[in-house]
Amino acid sequence: MTHVKICCIASIEEADMAIKYGASAIGLVSEMPSGPGVISEKTIKEIAEQTPSYISTFLLTSKQNVDEIIEQHHRCRTNTIQLCDKVINGSLLQLKKALPKIKIVQVIHVNDDCSIEEALKVSEFVDAILLDSGNQKLVTKELGGTGKTHDWSISRKIVESVNVPVFLAGGLNPHNVDEAIIQVKPYGVDVCSGVRTNSILDEEKLKIFFEKVKIS
Asked: Which residues have C-beta within 8 Å of that of residue 166, sequence separation ≥ 6?
């Protein structure tokens, strides 16, 4: 089955619910310029510590300085780091060397065909890529959680071009995830608002989402 990451997890109870239905990864959102799901680093650490070791715990960070990312990870103690923006101070190689046991996932915000080249460039330095629908060029950056889809044909080209696992995010929900999987053929899918009601994880939506993933 396609792997599923449930993002914007806000509590141990939400993490347990996601895992119960089959999530292999959960997303824990630290400080962002915009978007939903932000929780404190203290809460991220608590959830990460109480999540089974076979589940990937993603620290979503907007930081662009390698030293700051490393320091934040030491506080949060997840087993995976999701870079929601480009690293501009330091390098991905430097980050990998500093945290050799931690998986590094780079987000590519899919806007046009330039995203394919961007994904190819970073693919040799990361453990996975996550395709989302943000916009780093806005005055207030959108680094995820927009609830918007993007051009899945570009995402499919990225999946076919790189040699690392690719997660698909951006506007997924129980009504379109099956079509997204058929079109893009990602390693995994990532959902936040699509399985929530009034920002709370909705068990019925979660159940339907996993059913659609299983039959895709």
From this structure: 119, 128, 129, 130, 131, 155, 158, 159, 186, 187, 188
Q: How far is CA 53 from CA 56, 77, 115, 211, in A?
A: 7, 12, 32, 25
Pick the closest to residue 149 from 184, 117, 114 (CA basis): 184
Q: How far apart are CA 183 and CA 149, in angstroms?
A: 13
Q: Is the pTM of this model over 0.90?
A: yes
The DSSP bridge partners found for residue 104 are: 81
Partners of 6 in the β-ladder: 26, 191
Phi and psi angles of residue 27, each rounded to the nearest 5 degrees, phi first:
-105, 130
For 34-65, write each residue's pLDDT tens digit. 999 999 999 999 999 999 999 999 999 999 99
CA distance 65 to 48: 23
Amino acid at the residue 152: W
Q: Which domains does the chain have, with CATH numbers?
A: 3-215 (3.20.20.70)
Distance CA 31, CA 150 (A): 24
